[in-house]
Amino acid sequence: MRRPRRWTAGVALMAWAAAGTPVADAPLAAPVATCLITQVPQLAFGAYDVTSSAPDDTQSQLKYICDSSISTLRINLGPGLSGSFTTRQMASGGNRLSYNVYTDSARTKIFGDGSAATSYYSKFLPLIDSATFYGRIPAQQGGIRVGSYSDTLKITLLF
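^ that's the sequence the OP posted. Answer follows.
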């Protein structure tokens, strides 16, 4: 019996924090609102079996602490290598493997920045919390070559 070939896949996420628009009349001594990211999510899919009829799912969390001056937080996720939210791809050299990231465990709402029918994470803040990222590689992608596939997505925190 022939063993199926497997591919490894993972997505690195880079976090960026961006405060809201500065107020021109704010006093110089005013404290600066901050959020500290304590854990950046890594979506590690592991070995991908092209013969499996089930998608390859994973999840990870972004953990953060925000100061008490911040009442809401919005988290946007960039499109990555493919430049498209709906057709994200990981690469191994010139080879591509389709995947996506979602805001819900049912994997129906694509995690993006609110454009192109994507969703973003938004929350009224407690000081310490987390946001879960849900990843999926669709089943039975043809023409995939053996390799280590990866992509990097930019996470932006707006508060």
